[in-house]
Each structure stands twice: as C-alpha cells, then as structure tokens.
UniProtKB/TrEMBL annotation:
Residue numbers spanned by region Disordered: 150-170
Gene designation per UniProt: nrdR
Residue ranges annotated for the ATP-cone domain, each copy included: 49-139
Renumbered zinc finger spans (unnamed): 3-34
InterPro entries assigned: ATP-cone_dom, NrdR-like_N, RNR_NrdR-like
Organism: Candidatus Scatosoma pullistercoris
Function: Negatively regulates transcription of bacterial ribonucleotide reductase nrd genes and operons by binding to NrdR-boxes.
Protein name: Transcriptional repressor NrdR
Length: 170
C-alpha cells in the first residue's frame, strides 16, 4: 500500500476491523518511511450480472426489483417479511453463484415462481398472472388446472406413503 504523504510502499497495519455489516475491512496503517497514519478499506470486488430483458436490453441485476415484485404479489397475504427476504437472498445467491455474466429475466421469474409456489399459492398465481401475461381467462384457468393436478398428485403420493407405513407397523 503506497503512502499518501511520502509515496513509500512499506506500511504496517495498526488496527483492523470489519465495517459496513462485515462487507468491508477497515485497516488503520502507519507508513514505515514517514510515520504518518492513514486508513484503507478492503472490499470484495463484485462483477455485475446483467439481466437480459425480453426486449433484448440489458441492465444490472437488482435484488430490490425482485423484492418489490414478491412484495406486490404477497400483498394482503400472510407471508412474513422474513420469508420474503429469505426468498430474495436465495434468488440473489443463485444468480451470483451461477458464474454467468448474464441471466435472462425469464430465468429470474421462474426462480421467483418456484419459491412463491411453495410459500403461498395465491401469491404465486398473482405473480404468474403478471409474469406470464395471461391474455384471457382460459390461459389463467389452464394455470390453475395445472396447479390442481400437481396438488392431487402430491396428495396421492402422501396417501401411498402413509399406507406403506401402516403396513410396516402391523
């Protein structure tokens, strides 16, 4: 680290502590050449992930946009903010861990819907109605029928699993 005052490249760290919610390390340094003190900040360099929108434009991934969309779909629903924050954190982690420099808005929308479906079906349908841009009531009903079939399949699997347990207990 080059000293601001004498351009010496030798310095020693006097104090080091985390700052900015543990996203930054603040270091107090002392120049070996002139003895003056200065502060440096060390942060992780984040390479931005670009979102490719449906019209072909690109913009930086913004977790706040994801959060706002989820909040809107969960309006007047019994979904705690902690659950919403968890979904946003999970989606953000998945986006950054993909190691891709670009992701489509469609992929992000699918991630949101996958999580909303598990949390609240009404919020899921609200989000899907905007995301999938249902043109008419029949496309909306088709989505609801798919959900009902999936729910019936899960119920059947649950009953079959319970029946298997009862047979073992006898």
């Amino acid at each position: 680290m080059k000293c601001l005052y004498c351009d010496c490249t030798e310095s020693k760290v006097i104090d080091s502590r985390s700052a900015d919610d543990d996203r930054t390390i603040r270091r107090r340094r002392e120049c070996v050449g002139c003895g003056r003190r200065f502060t440096t900040y060390e942060t992780i360099e984040v390479t931005p992930v670009l979102v490719v929108k449906n019209n072909g434009t690109r913009q930086a991934f913004n977790a706040e946009k994801v959060r706002n969309g989820i909040i809107k779909s969960c309006e007047k629903r019994p979904v705690p903010m902690a659950v919403i924050d968890g979904m946003v954190a999970d989606i953000s982690k998945q986006v950054y861990n993909s190691m891709e420099s670009e992701i489509t808005s469609k992929q992000i929308g699918e991630m949101v819907m996958e999580r909303l479906k598990k949390v609240d079906e009404v919020a899921y349908v609200r989000y899907a109605s905007v995301y999938r841009s249902f043109k008419d009531i029949s496309s909306f009903l088709a989505e609801l029928k798919d959900m009902m079939k999936e729910r019936e399949g899960e119920a059947r699997r649950g009953r079959a699993k319970d029946a298997g347990k009862e047979g073992k207990n006898e």
